[in-house]
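User: I'm curious whether this sequence folds into something compact or stays loose and floppy. Could you predict its structure so I can see for myself?
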Amino acid sequence: MTPPDTSGLEAALRAEVDGEVRFDAGSRGAYVTDGSNYRQVPLGVVVPRTVEAGARAVAVCARFAAPVLSRGGGTSLAGQTTNTAVVIDWSKYCTKVLTVDAERRTCVVEPGIVLDELNRQLAVHKLQFGPKPSTHSHCALGGMIGNNSCGASAQAYGKTVDNVRRLEILTYDGQRTWVGPTPPAERARIVAGGGRLAEIYTGLDRIATEYLADIRRGYPKIPRRVSGYNLDSLLPENGFDVAKALVGSEGTLVTVLRAELDLVPVPARQSLLVLGYDDICAAADDVSHVLEHCSPSQLEALDGRMAQLMREEGAYLDSLDTLPEGDSWLLVQYSGDSQEDVDAQAHALLRAVGRDEKDANVAFSDDPEREQKMLRAREAGLGVTARPPDDRETWEGWEDSAVPPERLGDYLRDLKGLFEEFGYDHPSLYGHFGQGCVHTRIPFGLRTAEGVAGFRRFVERAADLVVSYGGSLSGEHGDGQSRGELLSRMFGARLVTAFGEFKAVFDPGNRMNPGKIVHPNPVDGQLRLGPTWRPDTPATHFGFPEDDHSFNRAVMRCVGIGNCRGHTGGVMCPSYRATMEEEHSTRGRARLLFEMLDGHADSAVKDGWRSTAVHDALDLCLACKGCKADCPTGVDMATLKAEFLSHHYEGRLRPAAHYAMGWLPLWAKLSRIAPRLVNSVLHAPGLARAGKRLAGVDGAREAPVFAAQSFLQWWRQRDTENPDPDDPRTVVLWPDTFSTYFHPSIAKSAVRVLEDAGFRVAVPTEPVCCGLTWISTGQLLVAQKVLRRTLDVLRPYLDAGTPVIGLEPSCTAVFRSDAPELMPADQDVRRLAGQVRTFAEQLVHHAPDDWRPPQPARQATVQTHCHQHAVMKFDADRELMRRAHLDADVLDEGCCGLAGNFGFERGHHEVSMAVGELGVLPAVRGAAPDSLVLADGFSCRTQIEQGGTGRRALHLAEVLALALDGNLPGDRPERLADRPPEPSRTARWATTAALAVLAAGAVGGLCRPRR
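Assistant: Here's the prediction. I'll summarize afterward.
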């Protein structure tokens, strides 16, 4: 078919559709792939503001014969949501719950609403949508309907198809209607009415009649048959349910505009039983035995290989600690109306299988928090197996086959034999064993012709294997491009012909997500990599030691899981949460960096490091490092951003903010000449506004106030000789820029508490800096010079192994993470990374046994700095607060939004405040007046102070030092902290007036006539 006129199409969409229409390289690059092996560059992207606008977009596309692809969370693992089409992204605006009928247990939703958000809104009715895939934090209901999603809870509630009552659909040629169960009389009425709708129902009736026997014989009778179209829903015994027939059609037939869903009660009580086995096949063998004796709400499995990967990655160790003895496990969850009921179900199963709760290979819990910890290990499977520690690339392609549960053990043995035959080592095997569904990721060689050929041979052999067991190619993730070509092996030629006729009824022109399921693209076509992929291999400043010293491999950590699109919990990704834009998610940015490598002839980004599209996507990255911890594959977008900026501006003038804030340590040091005057200038009417404009600072931001006396000035006045580095009691207190020049009371407090704990404090008096601000602005060569000078100053302490205590989390994180990546071969950098500790780590793990921290005994609202969350973690701080009798509410509200220089830079203020308002700022406003507000990060404290909370946050060191003096005041205890005051109104105006006089004098001198 002739390619559509994209310029005319774009113009028409802009003119006629109420939405965001994007045909730029950045938008197209962000949508080139999903969670699969496949990649196709879209024609453009439309983000409709309403369902009606989305329907209008389809109509415009039809006028130009442009293919259409509906997309929600974009987490598809079989290539369903990548296509050379107009992508309609429903997930930003079309997210409403339109109605809830609690009595009938139904609701009507728009296609873009995320599952967790739907269930949050339903919680008031004590109802939920039953299916819950592991992507529940970010998968959209439209995508769940498209894929026929399942998840672990399908054991109790069935697949999505089992929970859809009606759909409002739109065909490519404009027919719009609600569909659902359609009895004969209703079908007759529709056909009698004539028109396109009659044509559709006539065609469906013909297919159901002509292929009735084939459908009844050819569809495996197993719980997890997701492959193929749901033609069985058109059988008379299934009520000729057109809605259910369309579920799982992957956007290849119609556009779903709204959905009426069946809901289920939220279980009142749950318990979890974990059974250990010698290997995963033995666990699978026991599934049918378990199901004979109980009806669990979940029956999941994970194997020893996954547990090994978790241990090697240091991930989910708390979950592994809850598992009983064994090398593979079945996790059996029960739900019921009472705790006695669910506990009784678990104990009944134990008796039936001849085990006891006290056995070493049994673990039982009816504590919800512990249950979630146990289940988290299983739910994390995709992320853990996607990037194993041995750096093998593992891929989807045969990741969700399903067989009858009673035949599962034998199937796994044969599947493992196939792995061995193809030299695929030992992929992890896990999944929804109660329904015979198996998940895995396999180290296919998708970079070479030989590897791709092996991939094809394997999936063909695996397809024949699963069919021989009466199973399904897909038990959850759908067919897409991964399995579309293999459907004839499962269903036979006649049913595949019926699939083609079914598509032709709704989409005769093959414009709806073409190349999937029907007339499919080859399983080894349009690969994200493939034998013709030839990416650039740029030289970099960062060493990327955990990625085989390769920028490319660091970018390819992203496999499209999409956790960065979650709305709550953790830190990742604040810019996505504020904008709801794929381009401003970790995944979207990784996609653009991948395209920047220009490995394909049709790469969306062609201008490499100079790319404006990549720059614009990274511009709203807060460099919070949340993804480094929260991304299942450990994407570190902050480091990738710094690397990009270093090359993007190489040999070019940088933005003013890079000089103003990137060089902040230097300006802070120069402020010592006249700190009060500097403060007055920075806050003077007129001058401050002009200064911000020149410095690239957003006009809505207030400049932080420099302290009249810096910490180093105070330290020198103290006239204390630095202790011997070899003294085991010696610690070096790191004089970071923020604790030295802005909030010196923090460093002073730390000295006091450390000395109270018996340590001898040393402070470098020569200029030192971690280089943070240069790193975050991509001035990496300067950062290296700064770090080398710092290492020279610290050398006596590095040689002696003296601990270095960091107070500012972002600076501590540089020494632990950024510096070793920037200078991986430098032995002093490695020494420093091993010697640097947080304030809490030093006091919790290294203070004398007889030392007890002061005990302010207060409630505290605590904001963890993002870099601490990502790099150092917060365990020691929690323990120190516990010992100090602080009742700490450690917020799980994400980033504060300021994030170093980000929130100060011009053009970022709106996003910065939007991020803060997502959780941190409201939580602080809600804190009791007599409680403490703690935030160790300077950015967090500044955002809280400037965010209209009416509160001022303290560093933990300040709280402990204040507690040494006795009880804290009852109301707003932070008022005892020593903070530099803003210059008075008189001083500010006097500064403006003085400079105005000086300027007038200068102008007058220039204008005076010469003699």
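Summary: The chain has a mean pLDDT of 95. The longest helix spans residues 985-1007.
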